[in-house]
Specification:
The complex is a heterodimer of chains A (481) and B (254).
Chain A lengths: L2 H10 L13 E3 L6 H10 L4 H14 L24 E3 L13 H9 L4 H8 L2 E6 L2 E5 L2 H6 L3 E4 H7 L1 H7 L10 H9 L2 E7 L9 E6 L6 E2 L1 E7 L4 E9 L6 E4 L2 E6 L4 E8 L11 E12 L5 E8 L4 E4 L2 E4 L5 E10 L4 E10 L5 E10 L4 E10 L7 E10 L5 E10 L5 E10 L2 H9 L4 H12 L1 H4 L4 H14 L6
Helix pairs in contact in A: 2-3, 3-9, 7-8, 10-11, 11-13
Chain B lengths: L5 E10 L2 E11 L4 E5 L6 H9 L4 E10 L2 E2 L5 H6 L2 E4 L6 E5 H15 L7 H14 L4 H5 L1 E2 L5 H15 L3 E5 L7 H14 L5 E5 L4 H5 L4 E6 L2 E6 L1 H10 L2 H8 L1
Parallel strand pairs in B: 3-10, 3-11, 6-9, 9-10
Antiparallel strand pairs in B: 1-2, 1-4, 4-5, 7-8, 11-12
The chains are: A alpha/beta (481), B alpha/beta (254).
Chain lengths: 481, 254
Amino acid sequence: MTENSNIINDVTSSEYKYGFVTDIDTEIIPNGINEDVVRLISQKKGEPEWLLEFRLKAYRYWTTLEMPTWAHLDIPPIDYQAISYYAAPRKKEGPKSLDEVDPELLDAFNKLGISLEEQKLLSGMAVDAVMDSVSVKTTHKEKLAELGIIFCSFSEAVKDYPDLVKRYLGSVVSYRDNFFAALNSAVFSDGSFVYIPKGVRCPMELSTYFRINASGTGQFERTLIVADDDAYVSYLEGCTAPMRDENQLHAAIVEIVVEDRAEVKYSTVQNWYSGDKDGNGGVYNFVTKRGLCRGDYSKLSWTQVETGSAITWKYPSCILAGEGAVGEFYSVAVTKNHQQADTGTKMIHTGRNTRSTIVSKGISAGYSQNSYRGLVKVAPNADGCRNYTQCDSLLLSSHCGAHTFPYIDVLNDTAVVEHEATTSKINEDQIFYCNQRGIPTEEAIGLIVNGYAKEVMNKLPMEFAVEAQKLLQITLEGSVG
Amino acid sequence: MDNILLEVKNLHAGIEGKEILKGINLTIRPGEVHAIMGPNGSGKSTLSSVLAGHPSFTVTEGEVVFHGKNLLELSPEDRSHEGLFLSFQYPVEIPGVSMVNFMRAAINEKRKYFNEPALSASDFLKLMRQKRAIVELDNKLASRSVNEGFSGGEKKRNEIFQMAVLEPRLSILDETDSGLDIDALRIVAGGVNKLKTEDNATIVITHYQRLLDYIKPDFVHVLYKGRIVRTGGPELALELEEKGYDWIKQEIDN
């Protein structure tokens, strides 16, 4: 191996910098899952009967299912009875203001670079922080309320806006959708809820930071976003977790409903702990994300930068039901060491003249496996649909794998579906060219990889773009060989 | 005082165990232009790669002193910071990385090396504008990705543009004339001449006399089978142009 390869290996097997554990008094229920546990969770959250019924139906359905095995992933057996399904920072009687939030918790969020106070005062970005599945504090709520925008934790939404929640919960991702969706529907503990009323353009980026802190727990949050007619919102999601040598399970659901002419942008920077360089520990990230573009000329855009998790199983999708609806999926997925990712999207065209764009950039290093899996489906009655898919893979080592599984299912012959795919290996000559101009190998890789991912990075909101660029650089420290 | 910029002594180097350079000796002083000519496969490009520190090549013997420093101990990027520039025969494309970002990274790495603060955005853009004029490089080209979709001539002009920005002490032009039409050749050579000072030096690697009509060498070296077999003034290049390399090959091989 050349010196460059060594550097790339150092860089790509670099340490995880968010791996601290916060010492917070946490309430964790005993491990295991059964109907009583589901009831206990519901009871702890003081939920109405209909929601308990929803959970129980989901639980009963889940018990009839088996873990899916179709993904290009090697998932060790998971003992679902060895996980605690509810962990909450122990509240000292409901904080009314930031001053009352546990200082340790605030400190934890500060370490993540998101000071709630700062966020609240300076940034004009509204943040909902979810620690171990329980929403800790939502900033900017009052300001948003003036516009009729609801942005709160899922539990609050259940209490304060039960009709909205009841109407939309499970309307896009049914509890019968898949194994992990059923599990989430049974035991979800919190999450975020967003409602943008008719004709309102949300004036700030709404943002949620998720963090798993407690040991031996799973995180099961739910996000529900509804954009009513002519509404617009840009929503950001960031994720980190402590370094632990066990595997932690994260099984979330994101549901989005987009009405007539409304637009939702959903951006994710996922950096869950990915395990050490030998593949021990790390988060299992099994997430179901789907949006229903129900309205005519509605638009949903998913942008994701995935650098973390030991195993990722995730396909943010769009159902394009309204006439002329638009779905977009822009993804950068980076895997290194022994990480595995099977990610992509589904674009389901059921409305006429609907359009979708898929741009997927996979970057694989070390011994990792990185798969793109995508479905483009055009229904028989959906005339005039278009899809463009571009799927690129960049290999940084000789031991990693990049795979592409495109499924195209077109039942209407007026559809135009394009698919382009490339695979390339990072080139020693490119690195040497940078070196010769005085740019050291680590920085050169950062430049080359960011250049490769530029098309997707450009889609991220400014606040995230800079962070994501750094993340790509840090993540890949030492990964070519 | 004998002011030497680059001194190569008995340099042996090769790739994958195969020796290509078999004892190169070369002395270059500030202000000089040296042409290195020779038939295909004589080791010209290997010499430029080894001097720049390409990781594929291994030095097996000899030493190289670059203004008092042991060049072979320096990483490729430090060689660059110390003032060694290689204009590539085949400049690589780096998709998605704009020339502006690329050059900013290059310049600021160099400033970091000398403990200088990074250049402000406005100073940097001013510098880019100034230097672009030297090789008549279009503004649009500078905002495009590094060499991506550039024509052969544009790539070479872009190399000289980078040379202008980095202000090296020693520039190695590796077959910069290959693939250039006469107009592009004139622009590129004009750029090189504008950048020439009493303090810097240039190594021009070429097959043909043509480029040397524009960039006047002080010395011409003939490289053959990994050794410099003949050194002369500009007249040697003319002689080679007229007679080809066969007479030299015959002399050496016999």
